Amino acid sequence: MGFRIGVADVRLTYHLRPMYTRISTGPSRSALTAIPIFSDAPALPARHARAPGAAEAMRTFKGEVGETVTLGHMMMVGAGRRADLTLATVRTLGARLVRALDRVGATAVRLESAASLAQGRDRRFEAGQAFGEAIAIANWRMDAFDGTATKREPRRPRLSVDADDREFADGMARGLSIGASVNEARRIAATPPNVCTPDWVAAQCRALARAYGMRCSVIPYAKAKALGMGGLTAVGRGSAHKPCLVLLEHRPRSISRPARGRHLVLVGKTITYDTGGYSLKVNNGMKGMKYDKCGGAAVIGAMHAIASLRLPLHVTALLPAAENMVSDDSYRPDDIITMHNGVTVEVTNTDAEGRLVLADALSWACRELEPTAIVDMATLTGGVVTALGKFSAGYFCVDDGLRERVEEAARATGEKVWQLPLWPEHREYMRAQHADIINSNPSREAHPIQGAAFLAYFVDAGVPWAHVDIAGVSSSETPSDLCVPGPTGWGVRLLTSIAERMA
Question: Are strands 486-487 and 475-476 parallel, antiparallel or unpaired?
Fold first, then answer.
């Protein structure tokens, strides 16, 4: 079964490699054999030890993670110290391996001794999934907008991957599928604002629904206004491309026993471009604001994964999509707007727009969808970047059960989260002089918490809810083992894992 790999907008010479158009699982007669070698136990399997040049290569091979030496149809791959083996190691190895395969022009590879990359026999599937995810995610670039002056070579048509352990190979196939969903999120995130408008987002969701048997519907601007969605309509009304709320529903015929009666709702901030509005961004601060839709892109990617994996759980995604522009009809600081649930908001900062569109979506979800859990994801605050850097997302959750699922999913996927407090005092901190609440306190105190405290006014008491602020992890300006510069697709694997744990 093949999985089409998505595409990253980079201009670094290091990343001008062709890479692969398609990666699939399955045996191939022409496969290159890749063999993991541990630095603290450097040894080749007996049948390969006598290969020409093997003894000499082993004398200089250090076994560092991702280090490779190719001898004919054999590639030695460093796996680091066996004692240090983790899923993060496996992901790094997979990412570096796919780039090494591209460099030597390989079209097929078979991983031998694959079980050695698992922390115990019962974790071979898990290790295979991590390996497959890494291969898919590392094999990504944004070339959809390459023109006649591009220096990039065409992609290689295909890479076939296989493993000598069945459980590892099955996990690898699943990992490739999830990795393709991550890359779908990256494709949407990297699409420029002259293409990606709220209507374009809706069209992408409709296409996804048709392809995977989901339902898609759209609440357009006029209806949103009639429904009292004052936040969504205020943020987007200054743009020629009016806002909308997109609903994407995965409702399989068969629901697992643990998932019966459960309804997971995912909400993603989908600001297709953010100028800051009348609180205009300065000092080139607008550059990269196409990534302000990364929360929504992650939710779309997660729905892609949930549907393609056919998870037996009812899941609905809400994507409040808007473009925050400046015009004679834009909302202003000092405006007072009434939200979907009747809460009035005094606008202090039009660049704190994401929480306004999320708030209407959260309120509508509580009123119309009867959720048993809500997780929202957003590039919400610069404060969370100051607090946690590029190392972790910040999250807020006061429900013990949902908090446990979020943290379990973070450990499993390697998408790190760190809980920040959300106390009644924080909610009171958002009180306004002339309305119920303000959308941003002029003080920078508790800055990342302000967004969560604001959103808490729009989630019904008793509904388990988690808010995940991905402002620091959603994109990167420097390359890593897994990702080229650009959007990372962060959150797709986390949300998918949360859904799996509920199913």
Answer: antiparallel
pLDDT tens profile 91-122: 999 999 999 999 999 999 999 999 999 988 88
pLDDT digits (tens, 9 = 90+) for 344-357: 999 999 999 999 99
Cα radius of gyration (the chain): 24
Average pLDDT over residues 54-81: 93
Spatial CA neighbour of 369 closest among 270, 301, 452, 267: 267
**Tokens encoding 484:** 């080229």
How much is the average pLDDT of 69-95? 95
Amino acid identity of residue 358, one-letter, is L
- Segments making up each domain of the chain, as ranges: 2-185, 191-502
Examine domains 2-185 and 191-502 and report if their fold is the same. no
The listed CATH number (1.10.10.60, 3.30.365.10, 3.40.50.1820, 3.40.220.10) that belongs to domain 2-185 = 3.40.220.10
CA–CA dist 136, 121 (Å, integer): 24
User: Which phi-psi region, left, alpha or beta, contains residue 118 (left: φ > 0; alpha: ψ -120 to 50)?
Assistant: beta
pLDDT in tens, 140-162: 988 889 999 998 888 888 899 99
Report phi then psi at 384, rounded to 5: -70, -30
- Smallest Cα–Cα separation from 241: which of 190, 287, 275? 275
| Distance from C-alpha of 265 to C-alpha of 374, rounded to nearest angstrom | 5
Homologous superfamily (CATH) for 191-502: Zn peptidases (3.40.630.10)
Q: Identity (one letter) of the amino acid at 297?
A: A
| Residue 223, CA distances (Å) to 186, 218, 233, 267 in order | 30, 10, 10, 19
The Cα-based distances of 299 to 229, 248, 268, 466 in angstroms read 21, 10, 6, 14
Question: CB of 137 within 8 A of CB of 483?
Answer: yes
Averaged confidence pLDDT in the chain:
93
Which H or E run contains 183?
helix 166-190
Cβ count near 398 (within 10 Å) = 14
Residues annotated as catalytic are 281, 355
Q: What angle do CA 336, 337, 338 make, to 5 degrees?
A: 130
Question: What are the C-alpha distances in Å from 210 to residues 316, 346, 367?
Answer: 15, 40, 27
pLDDT tens digits, 429-459:
999 999 999 999 999 899 999 999 999 999 9
Q: How far apart are CA 37 and CA 62, in angstroms?
A: 9
Average pLDDT for residues 471-499, to the nearest whole number?
96
To which H or E segment does residue 454 belong? helix 447-455
